[in-house]
Specification:
Blueprint lengths: L13 E7 L11 H15 L5 E5 L2 H13 L7 E5 L7 H4 L2 E5 L2 E8 L2 H4 L9 H7 L6 E9 L5 E3 L4 E5 H7 L5 H12 L3 E5 L17 E5 L2 E5 L9 H13 L9 E5 L6 E2 L2 E2 L8 E3 L2 E6 L5 H11 L4 E6 L1 H4 L10 E4 L4
């Protein structure tokens, strides 16, 4: 009997993390040096535990990235470069979403529309197909799905429960009802139920409230979320409302989720523009949790909360202040690939 495909949780064993190197041809051009330092720190942290696949725009970018990483004493035996075209580096949203059944994989290639047409995404929308053309994956088939969905918009517990936000999915599909969207998500992602959040947002976020900036599964019965305890902050009311929504959710067994509220960092500004600094945008890898750090007094407290939520995993802070200048953070620039797919 063939096992049904399922959507693995992020904490399950991984073969690699997929990223794309920032270049002068991307939106990072004005602050490329700062962003490269974040990427070096990220690759250095990941390669302590597992391989990294790095998309590069051309041979010159590969040579440069290789030299920068090697000079930082990164374990280059765990780094593989793939020459492929891309518009930008937000691989969480343009990369493949992996389903598995035993050692067979189905990599879902949803429509990537540049977050609802905000940015050009013609190359990013072809990224998964291009990676298949370069034989990156094994025991895998690509499934092209004519439905707009980004990886940052969905969270799974690996056992058939999906967590997402109504704001984002409704923005992408304004004519669809909640029931219709649930049916689509359940069908394509092999989920048994969908949990919706109607509250929560971050200023400076142009994804229309991606779930990976707000609330994340830490286990089948645990959720980590970005809280706000500053009553003077514009985020206080919506994030308090989101916290109440999370408290009302129930596991498949009908029990409340164990909740881990992350501390609220101080405002990070770019002139008059507030940037979306969220500790919920962490990345789980084999044996560790990589946490976005913003040079804030709450960084260490956030790391301590994540250590409580993920016992047995090392929590590593990665400096991500340069990333939020472009409205995303650590989880947004990465995509995990399940064990065996690479």
């Amino acid at each position: 009997m063939t096992e049904t495909m399922r959507f693995p949780a992020e904490w399950e064993p991984q073969s690699a993390i997929l990223i794309a190197w920032p270049t002068a041809g991307t939106d990072w051009a004005d602050r490329l040096g700062e962003v490269e330092e974040t990427y070096i720190a990220l690759v250095s942290a990941i390669t302590r535990f597992q391989p990294v696949l790095i998309c590069v725009a051309d041979e010159d970018v590969e040579a440069y990235a290789r030299a920068r990483l090697a000079s930082a004493r990164v374990d280059m035996q765990r780094v593989r470069f793939i020459e492929v075209a891309y518009d930008d580096t937000w691989l969480r949203d343009s990369g493949p979403i992996s389903l598995r059944a035993n050692e067979e994989f189905r990599l879902l290639d949803f429509r990537f529309t540049g977050w609802g047409g905000k940015f050009d995404a013609s190359l990013d929308d072809r990224l998964v197909e291009a990676l298949f053309e370069r034989d990156v994956f094994r025991r895998s088939r690509r499934q092209d799905i004519d439905f707009a969905l980004e990886g940052g918009a969905i969270e799974t517990d690996g056992e058939g429960t999906l967590l997402t936000t109504w704001t984002c999915l409704h923005e992408r599909h304004p004519d669809a009802t909640r029931e219709e969207l649930e049916q689509k998500l359940s069908h394509h992602l092999e989920q048994r139920r969908v949990l919706w959040l109607d509250h929560g947002y971050l200023e400076g976020d142009d994804t229309d409230a991606h779930i990976d900036t707000l609330a994340r599964f830490a286990a089948r019965d645990a959720i980590v979320y970005q809280a706000c305890d500053d009553e003077t902050d514009s985020h206080f009311v919506p994030l308090q409302a989101m916290g109440k929504e999370l408290a009302a959710l129930r596991t498949v067994e009908g029990k409340p989720y164990r909740l881990f509220p992350l501390p609220w960092p101080g405002p990070v500004m770019d002139g008059d523009r507030r940037l979306a600094a969220s500790y919920a945008n962490f990345l789980i890898i084999n044996g560790a949790v990589l946490m976005p750090a913003y040079g804030d007094s709450m960084d260490d407290e956030a790391a301590a909360m994540l250590a409580n939520a993920f016992p047995g995993r090392e929590v590593i802070q990665v400096p991500c202040r340069p990333l939020i200048w472009q409205n995303g953070s650590l989880h947004c620039i990465t995509m995990q690939l399940p064990d065996g797919v690479v």
